[in-house]
Amino acid sequence: MFERFEVIRNAEMRQYTTLKLGGPADYLAFPRSAEEIAALFAEAGSAGIPVTVVGRGSNLLVLDGGIRGLVIRVEKNMRQIRREGNCLIAEAGAMLGAVAAAAAEAGLTGMEFASGIPGTVGGGITMNAGAYGGELADVTLRVDGVMPDGTPVSLSREEMQFGYRTSAVKARNFIVTEVTFELQPGNPDAIRARMSELNAMRAEKQPLNVPSAGSTSNGRKAFLPPH
Ligand SMILES: Cc1cc2nc3c(=O)[nH]c(=O)nc-3n(C[C@H](O)[C@H](O)[C@H](O)COP(=O)(O)OP(=O)(O)OC[C@H]3O[C@@H](n4cnc5c(N)ncnc54)[C@H](O)[C@@H]3O)c2cc1C
Predict the structure, then answer these.
(1) Strands 24-29 and 67-73
(2) Is the CB of 18 under 6 A from ligand 1?
(3) Is this model's pTM higher than 0.90 or not?
(4) pLDDT digits (tens, 9 = 90+) for 93-113
(5) Total structural domains in the chain?
(6) Among 73, 92, 113, which residue terminates a domain?
(7) Is 60 within the bounds of a domain?
(8) 75 alpha carbon to ligand 1 midpoint, in Å?
(9) For the segment 65-85, what is each residue's pLDDT rounded down to a tens digit?
């Protein structure tokens, strides 16, 4: 099964979560495109096996029993970032830090707050990740994705219904594949200085050298169940 794709069988999820916890996933796939994500869903659907979508695994608690079925990890093979005017268009597997760095390089301000959040664009949009007074909702112009049945979706900021650490991704049950961030022209040195300042503040407060999933609360949904 899944022979056309980059897939690991019985993948130990502890290797794919920042908490370094979690038993095996039956199949772990690393898609290269929205088309591959749709094709993986189609093949899993034909075989009747459940699908779970993850990013970097920095907000996931996977149980020792692991995850049955197919886990689609939108990360290492979908990391392109391109510029169009004042916008950066990032594939869902790009790290938020890489988008912030690309923005600084391009002299675009607005993403500095996200530079130290250790997740992907897809995970960040799902969670409306934020820090130091900013959140992805502030800079998101459009979110592109695919439904489990392969139908493309394209949502505006308003349609994304961003809230505190939440968005329409879960309710509408789609997979984020690409996000357009709308930024403002800024001074590259000032942008880099702000990023360094925020990262120094973060390093002071967070144990960056031990397994972690960031801050945690009882009411926070940290896992997308199979659908
Ligand atoms: C040390 C540390 C510091 C942190 N600091 C912050 C912080 O300052 N602010 C903050 O908001 N968070 C913080 N976090 C939490 C975490 O980094 C964010 O929630 C991040 O956005 C999660 O991204 P991820 O790629 O790791 O997603 P994952 O943990 O892999 O997944 C999170 C959720 O998103 C879903 N998902 C992932 N990718 C997609 C996709 N492409 N399409 C649809 N659904 C998807 C998953 O199913 C899951 O429900 C921190 C975590 C750590 C470990």
Answers:
(1) parallel
(2) yes
(3) yes
(4) 999 999 999 999 999 999 999
(5) 2
(6) 73
(7) yes
(8) 12
(9) 999 999 999 999 999 999 999
Q: Are 176 and 96 in contact (CB under 8 A)?
A: no
Whether 227 is covered by a domain: the verdict is: no
What domain range is 149 assigned to?
Answer: 81-205
Q: Residues 28-79: pLDDT tens digits? A: 999 999 999 999 999 999 999 999 999 999 999 999 999 999 999 999 999 9
The dihedral through the CA atoms of 138, 173, 145, 215 has a sign that is positive
Q: Verify whether ligand 1 is closer than 6 Å to residue 93 (CB atom).
A: no
Ligand 1 centroid to Cα of residue 64, in Å, is 20
CATH assignment of the domain containing 193: 3.30.465.10
Ligand 1 pocket residue status of 176, Cβ below 6 Å? yes
Instruction: Tell me whether residue 225 is in a domain.
Output: no
Q: Are residues 56 and 126 in the same domain?
A: no
Structure confidence at residue 217 (pLDDT): 53
